[in-house]
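During the reporting period the student researcher (J.K.) took over the structure-prediction task from the postdoctoral fellow and processed the backlog of single-chain submissions. One of the processed entries is reproduced below for the supervisory committee.
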Amino acid sequence: MTKPLSLFWFIPTQGDGTYVGTDVGHRPADYGYLREVATAVDRLGFEGVLLPTGKGCEESWIVATALATATERLKFLVALRPGVTSPAFAARQAAALDRISGGRLLLNVVVGGDAAELAGDGVFLDHDARYDQAAEFLTVWRRMLSGETVDFEGRHLTAKGAELAFPPVQTPHPPLWFGGSSDAAIDLAADQTEVYLSWGEPVEQVAEKIARVKTAAARRGRTLRFGLRIHLIVRETAEEAGAAADRLISKVSDEAIAATQAKVAQSDSVGQQRMTALHGGRRDRLEIAPNLWAGLGLVRKGAGTALVGDPAAVAERLREYQAVGIDTIIASGYPHLEESYKVAELLFSELGIGPARRGAHGTIAGEFGVRAQDRRAATS
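J.K. obtained the following structure tokens:
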């Protein structure tokens, strides 16, 4: 029997809302709201959450630490930025958060693709040099988390006597996740990470990328797991789902699209280039595959596609990704609080995902269903 997909959700540390591309209905990323999303997702039975990174987001490590103390089972996929800090400092952070969360930390390696944002963080390396530096960083980081005292001298980084006084809960270290579509990125994934992530491209393109990563990993005697980052718009009927997708971008202006597309055009991220090519910034090219819709990519960097449809159709599309090697879905929807409930209520049973808890009390007969004894009474 095929194991059910692992389903993660998204913590909107950049803000949230009913619409994208507008400030109408905007919800600020204050801690109270982020905690609402996290505790709802924890209770509903999602396995974990992704926290984004960047200058437009609340700092992911601080937010994850706060949310870890407010949740019980939820895993936290937090950005590890090789170019922004030292491997020894990052190792101490990771070990501390892994202990505070009781072993619920996952690390998302982010090398970065926005030159202006990287410059603000003091990173001025070109694309391939950033990946060379990341490889050195992760070499030191992994050895420290594994309990070694590290002496290392590379082209970009040097460490002498680097060690941890307090180890992580997970051994040899919290798992490393990573997404990137360039040759340099795939080499880094194959060498250093445990889970490779792709954005929501058509199944055939994701399958081709997975094959490349598997081949690269096999050359190194390694195997990886695979995840998909995508949005979900699930409703009881296909018509309702399509209307919800249209409504989500109904307040997007041509100026907002032009501004976003001009910004993403400056990125040297191959993954971003692949995302943009799916729709080309055009409103008339949003249906790119069955149930796969690119409307979010008009005004959103990074993951810009959504699966749109009724529960059976969306589950079928997700199983197609599963068939080519995906075992984890990192999903999201606007607004993230309400959409987490819709996904759990409509999609979990289709995917064979059970609820985290069942209430200890029953329901009021008639209002939330009819109990067996009430049916018998009605027919006696």
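The committee noted the following: The radius of gyration is 22 Å.
J.K. will present the remaining backlog at the next meeting.
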